[in-house]
Write a structure and sequence with these properties.
Elements lengths: L5 H9 L6 E4 L8 E16 L10 E2 L8 E4 L5 H12 L5 E4 L2 H9 L5 E5 L10 E8 L2 E2 L1 E9 L5 H15 L1
Parallel strand pairs: 3-7, 4-5
Antiparallel strand pairs: 1-9, 2-6, 2-7, 2-9, 7-8
Length: 172
């Protein structure tokens, strides 16, 4: 089992350091890989409960342009993450960085900016200090696909069986 951000995991798959990765879809599917869709999640942003934007029921990228975006990224991955959120998600904010989710959430609570989040609408432990809003484009939720990826020429019983077990966890 290896941990990493999107680009690191993609590199380990390409170099055959790992057999399978669980990752968000950031590129068009390649015919060199098996691309098993596990789940699709809506995108959200978290704000300090003190932010005037926290009163909205949903928010678009254009409404966020004057509020800094806080990304969780190592120094080596900041540019890649910023490019993704600018070019794919459409955020045109200034960017701030945190090394981990705890630091990012403390920045949000401190009213330093907003944090993009994928997943479920409910908040975790810091719910009283944070507000989570759906991120929309043209009034529709921005969706993210999460997939299991593996090289077609590395497909076999164990890889495919593990992928199906993984998929079952997302549908349960």
């Amino acid at each position: 089992v290896a941990y990493g951000n999107h680009e690191e995991l993609y590199a380990t798959l390409r170099s055959e350091t790992v057999d399978l990765v669980l990752n968000d879809q950031r590129r068009a599917f390649s015919d060199k890989y098996v691309n098993l869709l596990l789940t699709t999640c809506e995108s959200y942003v978290e704000f300090s409960a003190r932010s005037p934007l926290s009163q909205l029921s949903q928010i678009s990228a254009s409404e966020l342009k004057n509020t800094p975006c806080i990304l969780v990224a190592s120094a080596a991955q900041r540019e890649t993450e910023q490019e993704y959120y600018q070019n794919v998600v459409g955020l045109q904010s200034d960017f701030l960085y945190a090394e981990n989710m705890e630091e990012a959430r403390l920045m949000v609570i401190g009213h330093k900016g907003f944090l993009p989040i994928e997943g479920r609408p409910a908040l975790d432990a810091m719910g009283a200090s944070l507000v989570r809003l759906p991120l929309v484009r043209s009034g529709e939720p921005i969706l993210r696909n999460y997939c299991a990826f593996w090289k077609k020429d590395n497909s076999g019983y164990y890889v495919e069986e593990f992928a199906q077990l993984l998929k079952a966890q997302f549908t349960a």
